[in-house]
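Hey all, quick one. A colleague (J.T.) asked me to put the SN-glycerol-3-phosphate job into the tracker so the inputs and the C-alpha cells live in one place instead of scattered across chat threads. No bug as far as I know, just bookkeeping. Sequence used:
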Amino acid sequence: MKFFIDTANLAQIKEAQDLGVLDGVTTNPSLMAKEGISGDTNVIAHYKAICDIVDGDVSAEVISTDFEGMVREGEALAALDEKIVVKIPMIKDGVKALKYFSDKGIKTNCTLIFSAGQALLAAKAGATYVSPFIGRLDDISTDGLGLIENIRLIYDNYGFETEILAASVRHPMHIIECAQIGADVMTGPLSAIEALLKHPLTDIGLAKFLADHAKANS
Ligand code: G3P
C-alpha cells in the first residue's frame, strides 16, 4: 500500500519523506489555506516546493467547477511538474474533466467520493485515483471502511485500474484496516503514520536491551 501524506505543510512533508516511507502528497484548498498560502503565484510556488521535496505523486486541486475552468487550471497545474496529479471534484463537469485528462495521459485524483456509485463513475471516466473520505463518513455514523470494501469489490470485478486512495484517514487503525481491505493508497496526517511505529513493549524491550548491554560492558 502506498503512503501519501495529507498536508501542505512543508516541514511535515519533509519529515515523512526523510522517514523513507513516503510515496506522495495530497493537498486540498483547505490544507493550502491552513498553511496561509493564497494567490495564484504563491499557490504555484508552494506546489513546486512540495514537488522538490517529495519523490512521488502530488495531488493539486482545481478550484473551478465548470469543465472549461477545470481543464484550464488542470493543464496549468500538470505543466508545473510531472509529479502533479490533477485533483478534480466528483461533480458532473468533473467527470467530463476526468475523461478529458485521462485521454491526454494526465493523471487525476477524483476527490470528495462518498459512495460506491461515485467511485464507479470516476473509474469509468479513467481517473488515476479515487479518494473516498472515510473519516468524514465515520463522522456522520456511516461506515467509511465499508465503502473502501465496496469499491475494492467493484474494481476487482471488472479489473478497473483506478487506484483506491483512502482519504480523510484520521488514525493508525484506519491505515491498518485499509491495508487489510486492500486499498491501493492511504493519505493521512503525519501523526497517523508515526503512530504506526509505536508499541509500549518495543520501548520496554529496547530499554532492557540497552540496560543489559551497558551492564555487560561496564
Ligand atoms: O484528502 C482528503 C482529506 O484532506 C480530508 O480529510 O480530515 O479534512 O476529513 P479531513
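Adding what we noticed when we looked at it: The chain has a mean pLDDT of 98. The first strand starts at residue 2 and ends at 6.
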